[in-house]
Amino acid sequence: MYDQILLPVDEGTGNAEVLHHAGEIAHRFDAEIRLLHVADTDEYSVTLTDEGVVDGLVRRGEELVADLGETFETLGVEYSTDVVQGTPAATIVEYASEYDYDLLVMPTHAREGLSHFLLGSVTEKVVRLSDVPVLTARMTEEDTFAFPYERILLPTDSSEASRRAAEHGLDLAAAMDATVDVLSVVETAALGPDVRSNVTTGDFDQGAHEAVSDVAAMAEKRGVEASTHVETGSPDEEILSAVDEYDCQAVVMGTTGRRGVDRILLGSVAEKTVRSAPVPVVTVREE
Fold it and tell me: What does the CA dihedral 207, 243, 92, 28 come to, rounded to 10 degrees?
């Protein structure tokens, strides 16, 4: 399922759990990891040395990926390294697409005060714009990630993005012999009073039940055991509650590069989940 995994890193990555988790995934699928550092060209990076003018950020990046590579050597994971210059988010997205990676692993920090490079807007831009599935893993000292996954949460809203995400999540579940929990959240307040005046709550419920039933049917074809859930409330809050209640070890959900009213389980909800979930979140963008 995954042959090539791209892992962008910065000075704040360190020996974080995300490195070990990426290594476990690589072991499971016999994949190669590439450690990528993007030297931000928006920063002043030229340093004068006895050997002439040297790009200090590139040199620092080369030292960084070499140091982090030692973790994969210890784990027995096949890996390679690269350092490029550019604007971080755009460069990561273009690199993953150009070299046809199967999975992009991005650390996301739950606390302030760490490195600024892969925080907030950069990770979220990559999540919104990447055509390659993105696994984000929150990094704190207390976090540990279970692997292989035994239960995977699949939020859905019948959109093309959530359908693609469900297919990816079901393939992942099948590869790990995991079960899935399919969740659809009815959030009538987000649609506004004009919309609600023309339809009933039952219409929203029916759409949600149809959404989870469709994914359950896809799961049955793959031989994956699926449980379905329909809840009412705030989508991102219900997703986090479901992770805890059903003891899911990962979330696979859709996101979109567009902004607008079609983002009930897309866009900002995916970004909130990426920032807040205590388990890895795989986001799949609509085609």
Answer: -110
Q: How far apart are CA 71 and CA 76, in angstroms?
A: 9
Q: Per residue in 103-156, pLDDT tens?
A: 999 987 654 443 444 445 678 888 888 999 999 987 666 667 899 999 999 999
Residues 186 and 257 in one domain: yes
Q: What is the pLDDT of residues 55-69, one digit of tens each?
A: 778 888 999 999 999
Q: How far apart are CA 160 and CA 12, in angstroms?
A: 35
Tokens 């030229």 -> residue: 46
Which two tokens mark 90?
């755009």
What percentage of the chain exceeds 70 in pLDDT? 78
Look at strands 134-139 and 103-109 and give their pairing.
parallel
Boundaries of domain holding 19: 4-139
CA distances from 106 to 5, 117, 139 (A): 11, 11, 10
Crossing angle for the helix pair 56-75 and 17-29, to the nearest 10 degrees: 60
CB 89, CB 125: distance < 8 Å: yes
Are residues 133 and 225 located together in one domain of the fold? Answer: no
Q: Residue 203: CB partners within 8 Å, gap ≥ 6? A: none
Strand, helix or coil for residue 224:
coil
- The answer to whether position 257 is within a domain reads yes
- C-beta of residue 212 within 8 angstroms of C-beta of residue 228: yes
Residues 135 and 14 in one domain: yes
155 & 69 share domain: no
| pTM of the shown model | 0.87
Report the greatest alpha carbon distance in the chain. Answer: 75
Q: Angle at Cα 159 formed by Cα 131 and Cα 282, nearest 5°?
A: 45
